[in-house]
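Much of what follows relies on a compact textual record of a protein's fold. A record is reproduced here so that you can trace the correspondence yourselves:
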Amino acid sequence: MSNSSRLFRTAIVVGALLVALALSICANAATVASRSDHLIGYGTVNDLLLNVVVDYDAGIYTYNYSLQYLTGSDTVHLFSVENESDVAYTNAWNSGDFLNPAYDPDAYAYEVLWQNGNLLSGSTRQFSYKSVYGWREIPVTAYASSGGDSADGFTYGMTTNVPEPSSLAGLALAAFALPALRRRRK
């Protein structure tokens, strides 16, 4: 068997495995990303721990945030996750007394903003929303009421710049199969 035949067979097998992986991700609920970050602040809001888990199921991403207020003397009243492209989201929710945001296509709100809540130092709240848009690293902020003190950092949130898993599988298949097919024609 020639080297080009082996390469062609390897490319076909790898491409088939990538397609199978992408189809399984698209068909089944799965956690596709997670991370932990500290939001560092100044003034009366000092340090918060933010954990995010991004789940994918049937074409919908669910962004789940756990915000733990570690140190500070003021109450956090707003939690903001950037929505850089002003894209639609649904089912915004929180485990506390924050007002849940609702997407308004006419508002041009470039953030998912939970407001008028009370997160005290030493407490934890859960926040969540759903979107058809994939994830990437974006800015996040927790705000106090007095003097505009806040804690900032980065987390995962929705963006229009990330292809869905099946698109990635198609690109991977093309990357492996096209060179092999080109060599086979020669």
